Amino acid sequence: MRTLLQRNIRDRIMESLLVLSTIIVLLPLVIIIIHVVVNGISALNWEFFTEELGSPSRAIQGRPTGLVHTIIGTLVVDFMALIIAVPIGIGAGIMLSEYPDHKLNPTLRIMNDTLNGMPAILKGLLAFVLIVKPMGTFSGLAGGVALAFVMLPIIARTTESSLMAIPWSIREAGLAIGLPRWRVVLSTVMPAAKFGLVTGTLIAFARAAGEAAPLLFTSFGNNYLPNHWFGFILNPVDTLPQRLYSLAISPYTHWHSMGWAAAIVLLVFVILCFAAARFITRKKTT
Amino acid sequence: MNMFNMMTSRFQNFQILNMKTDKAPASVPQTGGVSQKAPSSSSTGKVRMQTHDLTVKYGTNIGVQNVSLPIYSNKVLALIGPSGCGKTTYLRALNRMHDLTRGATVTGKVILDGKNIYEPDANPVIIRRRIGMVFQKPTPFPTMSIYDNVVAGLKLVGIRKKSILDDVCERALKQAALFDEVKDRLRSPGAGLSGGQQQRLSIARALAVDPEVILMDEPTSSLDPQSTSRIEDLIQELKKHVTIVIVTHNMQQAARVSDQTAFFYVGNLVETGPTNTLFTNPKETRTEDYITGRFG
């Protein structure tokens, strides 16, 4: 039998270990954020948000240059991905949660997990085969499809878990008043789970927004604004993660700091998505 | 009176029964017990539903087996028995609620209006519309208002006309003895009501689709004595229009509210008959042992 003092000491030790591991988890994030902000803040100016990138000579000669086409391109490609992935992902999630006895269910579960674990570059290849080859050109649409493949399994899984969190009794109550199965899911279970559904979608969105690999040979990248708005969908489009990469490996110092600035924008974008997700779930509990 | 009954121990069943029969002797038919093998003919009234050799299995485990039981029109049938005896399993078989239970298989027949509800061409949605159900825990739809909860069964299948929905809502809430308490806040969330009110809301929701039979699975087990008493009074009122099957753990409740009682034990129907006969003069020793509190 340990004395009370011994037990208190053990309690303190355990608590310190937990605090330590929390710090270890947070430290890399803090270092990255500080490093990115320190290196990139100087390149964040008005022109960064209003001008297109153009050729390297612009930066070298000190002419105005920026990443407005990249920021717009990122939003267009990510929202296209969202529009494709949300209905399909939520549909798959409903299937996983509400029809556990359906014969397609086990296959769907395995495929979904496989898709989730599949290297992102392969999702880019898939979109290349499905969209780029038939269209004969790289395009924002192809990038959207590639990112949709990133979002799909995440949305399906979070949909499943948030629907499963709704008590089974709600479904039975719906059935007991003579509602068909699909109506029960749509009108009683989904509204009850709506916070979970929105959170899952935002998390998937933030995750896909940070992906560069699937976009390499789908949206491809572009140094200029398109001549027409359709250009963001049907022509090669620039996106932040991919632009960050190409700026970083370029041989121009000015482009390097623009790369850091692109990283700031991307970080803020992603953090905002997660913060929104957190905010929505917090609202639910109060 | 009901509050005191709730507190009375199981050993005083007989006394309560006498109180009940003194009060309303006409409501309890004085006929002999209904035999399990040939239940169809009886002087207790018109048979609304009838099960024939109904067996429910969960995988290889037997929930209930070979239950043949008549359910009489405008009467209250109480299903009693110790925990795990299959009474809820039986109840849920009556409106095909097992369709969604993983691994559950139902054999035998449940006859409603001369047709087996387990026929391949029978539509479970229509069956559940005719045979409503109230659960152990109140289950208001969490995101819906009181009004929307009540009319959910109509609104969600396409009845949009406000005048119809308003009428149905008022009628159902009045039938469930809830209208006066909520008439000024029909648009507030159903989940904001007290437990007893939520349960009456669940009953109103079941009544809104105008069912012929209502199945109640321990509807008062999560409620306080006062709410319990209100719901028991309600059951007496409702049987004028509908047939009721109620599962209860509480034998005083069975004695108070039911006309017929069926005693289940380890998946079998042991005995069934008019409530007062079964309680005062049980044929089987197991029934007698249970209702006198020797086991269970």
From TrEMBL, chain A:
GO molecular function, one term: phosphate transmembrane transporter activity
PROSITE patterns attached to this UniProt entry: ABC_TM1
Domain of life: Bacteria
Annotated localization: Cell membrane
UniProt key word Transport: yes
Keyword terms, alphabetized: Cell membrane, Membrane, Phosphate transport, Transmembrane, Transmembrane helix, Transport
Domain ABC transmembrane type-1 residue range list: 71-277
Keyword field contains Phosphoprotein: no
TM regions (residue ranges): 16-38, 71-94, 115-132, 138-156, 184-206, 260-280
Gene Ontology BP annotations: phosphate ion transmembrane transport
Entry membrane topology: Multi-pass membrane protein
Cellular-component GO terms for this entry: plasma membrane
Gene3D superfamilies in alphabetical order: MetI-like
Pfam families: BPD_transp_1
Family named by the database record: Belongs to the binding-protein-dependent transport system permease family. CysTW subfamily.
PANTHER family to which the protein is assigned, alphabetical: PHOSPHATE TRANSPORT SYSTEM PERMEASE PROTEIN PSTA
Name listed for the protein in its UniProt record: Phosphate transport system permease protein PstA
Organism of this sequence: Natronogracilivirga saccharolytica
Gene that this polypeptide is encoded by: pstA
